[in-house]
Write a structure and sequence with these properties.
seven-stranded mixed sheet; two-stranded antiparallel ribbon; 9 strands; alpha/beta
Length: 480
Amino acid sequence: MDLLERLGEFARSEHGRLALWCAGASAATAIGLLGVQSVSRSARTDKLRAEANIQAGVAVYDHRTTSLSANGAPVRKDRPAMDESLIREQLSRNYIFFGDEGVDKIRKSFIVVVGVGGVGSWTATMLVRAGVGKVRIIDFDQVTLSSLNRHACATLDDVGTSKVGCLQRYLHRVAPWVEIDCRNELFRKEDAAELLAPWTGADDRRPDFVVDAIDNIDTKADLLAYCHTHKIKVVASMGAGCKADPTRVLLNDISMTTDDPLSRQTRRHLRLRGISHGIPTVYSVERIGPGKASLRPPDEAAVAAAGGKIDEFGILPNFRAGVLPVLGTMPAVFGLVLATYVLTQVGEYPVDHAEAKERDGLYDKALQDLTNQHQRLNKTLDNTGFFAADMSAVIEEAAKGRSVIPPFHGTRLSVTKLDHDRPLTFDNLLVLHKNEAQKHEANVLKQGLPLSSYYDEEALAAIDKYRVRLKELERWREIL
């Protein structure tokens, strides 16, 4: 008797009918329970969505015609109580990642984001998505059409409205239980105490962190100096404009930042205030160069028509007047690094931040090799006048991090004088493997052999390409 016949006999027996009835009843019960749970969850989710929409103003007003409060945000009713089980479900991945204690710290925290353009809007968005309990966003500016290539949430409907109002409307639809305080105003050092004041409420909580996403140097320095002086934790963002390589974005103390014009100017302004370190900073070590984007000055004819008053082309007096090219993805990268740093600090998640020094030991050694060679060949104790940053530029940018000649070694690099007939200038440096550099010194620099006599055609071709890059790099260094 095959299996199907046996099953048929069992189904026709009394025990078989009873077993089938029990199975059917169990299945019906399970389906019923799942259905009730699904309907209940759907009802709670719909309720939460409706409350979020009401709170965000979707069903209450048209944000294009409504009046904003003094702080730049629409007046709202009291926040409705949120269902804690749904909040925990929305933050479930965070609870798994940080643990209950870590998320509890994040949900109780108060973060201030100053500047909510391309960088700050992404930072604020991810802080709210992570469940930060209280967020204060500060910005004086409005959404423009050109903002849409990099802003975290702005749409065409938001053009002409305040950036803080635009962001608040969006974030209340993401996490309506998060309290958001909008300040539609320019950060000024005279108003710092008010703008960075404790959150008014039961605990009058001071900011757990301030995020600097300002692109004006004076204002940025004022904010950082105030936080540093008043012992408010702060993390700063440097310039994302003209950048295109996300692998060059680093997090380090501001004293260690390199190759970034905004960080260089910020360091100078902070030193005038007696501050040289102690501020974590997100920045890029990507350098400008031939074919890359750079600051676009105002139209000369327009400036002439304005009587040469270039300040009139800035948003405000003393603000940048030119147009800074921005690849929309890069401000997001900066903003996400800022948010990640703040969340891991507040949630006390163990992160061992690597010191972002690139290859400082290599650059110091290359400078020492060049100095020793200069003193040896010229019988002098004078230095070369170069710095480790110059070695970094020659090695990483002109030589692409390897020896200039075949087989293009990438280790034990050294910098040597290139042509013995020319003075030791930036465009007369050559990057070689240490052994190659010793032979180059012995044959070209000491014996005086022409490059064309010592190197073969392949090596000479590689040197020619390198010299073109070196000259272009020198030209851009002069511009900076």
